[in-house]
Design goal:
The protein is an alpha/beta fold. It contains 14 helices and 20 strands. Helix 3 packs antiparallel against helix 4 (about 110-120) and helix 3 packs antiparallel against helix 7 (about 180-195).
Length: about 425
């Protein structure tokens, strides 16, 4: 029997990307990432299949750094607790089977009833595993794609994507790909019933509106930076603009258009992240509107007493500075355009802030780490932090580097794998 300490919910409030982190939501990659083959990897939105043993070691260093710094919640722990409630359990099971029928085997009628009964017969721990890791089809023939009655959530450890804290509420994101839709059911339950916070949902406003957390950056109490691309669309951004126009006299949304391919540009945080109040990490072609970013718009949406206006900007840094910011971009990959492309592919711009100029990211992006070093960030090794050899509190400005070769191949970085719940005011 699994024994763990009682989990206590905290306040939910994130008003910037760089206020000191007080609580974060993570999910340790489980056997769901082993339930891919070269045949279904593309369907699962992966370019390759992963070695879980290596992933476990790399992720232990990643979450170990966060556990040394802040209060860490884990998705599976909260889900197990929620499933003790019979009403929540029934809802989660029925919705998973009936509404989120994205399973390779399409069942209906009596088969669905049998599947619901089977899931309802499980205890909370077993059911939480099934909802995350998938449920195997006992009649699988060993050859066809129809191995799972309930499909694994291959991408769940990217906790940023399906939900994101927007000030004192949580945006339940409307995912652009069917294989990820069931993730939102878990996050909606967690934030509605465990943290008991008000929710936002673009798809409930319009079925064609899509948002994902990698595109939504909380720049300040009156400013969002949002990427518009293959995952977050114009309709999803319109939903947020309309929402804040009803609630705020003054508000701004700075939108950066993204390429729809290749897949390394799926979210804004793959080309831009805040490192602190006055520093950001950026992909140079985005700033210069060159190469794949030629012709990609940067637009400032301004809300004033219910009126929404639009103004073109040269780039995202120019847009920030036009609003009174003094922000310095650090270029990912250094000065070599070839290296910039290589390191961007492995989430070289995707840093997560623990506080103002206190960040975590992948060690493998050496030119990007060198650029941070030159900008005054002390370079710390995650393994030294986890072992206690290095104390992050001793440094005013640092980058905690996670040794990783397998995790980056999944297509996301430190910001993708973290869903901040509570930050101090910046």
């Amino acid at each position: 029997m699994k024994i763990r300490k009682q989990i206590t919910p905290c306040e939910v409030n994130v008003a910037s990307e760089y206020g000191r982190l007080r609580a974060v939501l993570l999910h340790r990659p489980g056997i769901e990432i082993e339930r891919m083959t070269p045949l279904n990897a593309a369907h699962a939105l992966y370019n390759d299949i992963l070695d879980k043993k290596i992933v476990d070691t790399e992720y232990s260093n990643f979450c170990g750094v966060l556990e040394r710094w802040t209060n860490v919640y884990y998705v599976e722990d909260i889900l197990e607790e929620l499933l003790n409630d019979e009403e929540i359990k029934k809802y989660m099971v029925e919705e998973s089977v009936s509404h989120f029928g994205m399973r390779p085997i399409k069942q209906a009628g009596k088969s669905d009833v049998q599947l619901i009964d089977r899931l309802m017969s499980m205890d909370n721990v077993e059911l939480a595993k099934a909802l995350i890791e998938g449920l195997e089809n006992p009649k699988w023939d060993g050859l066809s794609e129809n191995r799972y009655l309930l499909e694994p959530l291959y991408n769940l450890f990217f906790t940023r994507d399906a939900s994101s804290t927007v000030y004192n509420r949580v945006l339940i994101n409307s995912m652009s790909f069917d294989v990820r839709e069931r993730e939102t059911l878990i996050y909606e339950a967690i934030f509605r019933h465990f943290f008991k916070v008000d929710l936002l949902n673009a798809m409930a406003w319009n079925s064609k509106a899509h948002t994902e957390g990698g595109d939504v950056h909380i720049a300040a109490p009156d400013l969002l930076c949002i990427g518009e691309g293959i995952r977050t669309n114009a309709k999803g951004i319109e939903y947020l603009a309309q929402q804040f126009a009803k609630e705020r006299d003054h508000f701004n949304i700075l939108v950066q258009e993204l390429p729809h391919e290749p897949e390394s540009f799926i979210h804004l945080d793959m080309v831009f992240t805040f490192l602190g109040k006055h520093k950001c990490m950026a992909f140079e072609p985005m700033l210069k509107k060159q190469g794949i970013f030629a012709g990609k718009d940067t637009t400032l949406i301004s809300i004033n007493h219910g009126k929404i206006s639009y103004c073109p900007m040269d780039n995202i840094v120019d847009g920030l500075n036009s609003l009174g910011w003094d922000i310095q971009p650090i270029i990912g990959g250094g000065n070599d355009p070839w290296i910039q492309l290589r390191e961007q592919w492995h989430s070289g711009a995707n840093f997560f802030s623990l506080g103002d100029e206190k960040i975590i990211g992948y060690q493998r992006n050496t030119r990007t780490i060198d650029a941070l070093d030159k900008a005054g960030f002390s370079v710390l090794n995650a393994e030294d932090i986890v072992s206690g050899k290095v104390n992050m509190e001793d440094y005013k400005s640092f980058v905690a580097t996670v040794p990783a070769s397998e995790l980056p191949r999944a297509g996301g970085g430190a910001r993708c794998m973290t869903m901040p719940i509570l930050r101090d005011e910046a």
